[in-house]
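Each lists sequence, tokenised fold; shown next:
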Amino acid sequence: MTVTVGYDPRARRRRGSAAALLNLSGLGLGYLYLRLWGRAVWYWLFTALLIVLANALNAADSATAWLIIYGLWLVLAAYRGWIHGSKGETATIRSSALAPLAGVLAIALAVTGVLLYRSLPQGELDEAEEVHAEGRCEEAIPRYERAAESRYEFTLSPALADARAGIAACELLLAAEDAAGSGDFTSAVAHYEDYLRRYAGEPPFAGAEARLIGLRLDEADALAGQAAASGAWEGAGGYLEAFEAYFALRADHPGSEEAGQTAERVEGMYVTETAAFDNGRFCEAIDGLRPFTELAEHFDEPEARDIDERAERALPEAVYGCGSIRYEDGRFCQAAGEFREAARLPGAPDDLARQARTMVPRSRYECGRALGDPCEATPHFEAAADSPAATDRLAGDAESALRGALFDCGERAYEDGAYEEARQALRRLVDDYPGDARAGEAQDLLIAIEIAEVAADGGAGELPDPSEAGTGAAGVATVEIENGSSETLEILYTGPETGRITIDECSGCAETVTLDPGSYEVVARSRSDSAVVPYYGTWELSSGYLYSEYYYITFY
């Protein structure tokens, strides 16, 4: 060992090289070699801070950036060691050819230590992956967590990122199983699908896909159960969603055991929802059958087409059977609707459709008879009378009932003040059935309606009582009315008798009428000019008297 004094370039280069190599170890040994104690302490503090930051910031996730930072830090330390080792102020420090060798040895020891420390999380990771591959994530997660401890971050080991990914993946599996355990198969399926996507379909747990397929079948079964409970067809928890789940399972996993079970499950849904039909509960079966007649419109699957055809054949029978039940129970109006639908359904056999058409007018007739309101009964009697499927006897009975209903409807509506409804019913009776025994009475009611409308309008003038002109025939009241106006005069009256008198516009034109004595409501109005205000009043006519009235119009 020699001590160099003064200027010796070779000695300085050896000192600089030794210090640089010793600092390159990352331990700051170059400063110790140069006896720069303060710089060594600062170097250690900064290196410790760098390690703390690397651990806190998950440096292993951005290894490239941190490798650059480490490299710059070590290069700077080596450069500073070279500069200080080559200065004259360190000339008293021994320089030896072994010093650079010591630096190389320090680097080798430092690298070996880091590599050994860096291998620790990899061992934990390997154990975690092995347990994970068996699907035992409860045991794998603690191993992953040990492999991902922050104290290893500064080593930039890829094992830490893999361990964190393993934790996230295992948490998905555990969440999926928890969801499945609580019956939330939709969430369980979603978690397993996320898990498989993380590994592009090749996860550590080889049984993941098989488990996913099983959960998808469980999900479809759960949806089918919800649909059966609610009876809903569309929307969440409806039959369409359950069918979609079964068919999607088969399409996505065609060779699986679960895919082979979908046909049976689909058939089970149809059987469950249409059980009422097989048990003769036809009215209840209609709502269950009807949606299945549209199943083929939603799914291009053989089971969908088969079910669609079967439901289309069964629905007319169910609708007809429901109509028969309601007819027997006396619910004729509802039965008529069912028979009408059964006759029109595309899947109805000819004999069933023919029988249903026959039952429609019969049900409409009985419906009209069962209704307490003649106005409501009228369209039912009319439909039964006009139906080509009605027998002659039924058509005759329905027409007779229609006539009575028209009169009763008009009379009731008149009494209730519904004059327009009353007019329509009575006018139909008079126009369509003039030979009916009630046609005359209907005509009287039509006149009474006109009088009532004038009285209710409030714009009519006040019609005075007729003037007594002497005595007349006993037992009746005789009224002589003269038209002194230039308009055709119309007199409407209702009371013990009802009628209409029309007197032309001419000088001296008059009309004499003999009426039963009593109280009459009377309207006098112009037939030829609707602008002339009508007059309304009440006449009290006594037996054996002659009354005379002269009407004229004054224009202002």
